[in-house]
Task: inverse folding
């Protein structure tokens, strides 16, 4: 894969204003056949650093649905109405967006790990004759693994839901 994306040509403002000429951002993308073999994994390596940078340089926050965040970050209808009358946001507005960003970042960190499932497998077993055999994966924390996967799935849902809010 080779990607080359130029900066936005904002220095052409006067050309657009006076002559109607507005050059576009230059984008060149070459996809190799192996890039789509595990496309979800390939894209995770691109998306993760972009999410981290966006969180670090973010200057705003979109509206976040209360159902998408933990209860302690939700506001009541009364609080929202009080803030909405003045055109302001509530006190937890930016905290909610930061929580969403953190969940998406965590999710893509996990996706970039090839071995996150290994966190839930044991690395030794007690043999029938009492001998401990290393290298076998006979026990697994199924509940922990499932909870981990559900959190990742939720992070991917949040990424899709707030995709058009990923701007600065």
Result:
């Amino acid at each position: 894969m080779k990607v080359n994306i130029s900066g936005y040509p904002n220095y052409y403002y006067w050309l657009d204003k006076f002559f109607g000429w507005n050059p576009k951002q230059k984008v060149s993308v070459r996809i190799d056949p192996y890039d789509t073999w595990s496309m979800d994994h390939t894209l995770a390596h691109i998306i993760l650093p972009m999410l981290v940078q966006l969180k670090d340089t973010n200057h705003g926050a979109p509206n976040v649905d209360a159902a998408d965040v933990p209860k302690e970050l939700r506001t009541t209808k009364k609080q929202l109405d009080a803030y909405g009358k003045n055109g302001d946001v509530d006190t937890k507005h930016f905290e909610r967006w930061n929580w969403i960003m953190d969940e998406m970042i965590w999710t893509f960190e996990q996706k970039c790990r090839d071995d996150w499932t290994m966190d839930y497998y044991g690395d030794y077993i007690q043999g029938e004759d009492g001998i401990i055999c290393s290298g076998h994966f006979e026990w697994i924390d199924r509940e922990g693994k499932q909870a981990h996967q559900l959190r990742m799935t939720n992070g991917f849902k949040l990424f899709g839901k707030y995709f058009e809010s990923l701007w600065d």
Notes: The chain has two domains: 1-30, 38-165. DSSP finds five helices and four strands in the chain.
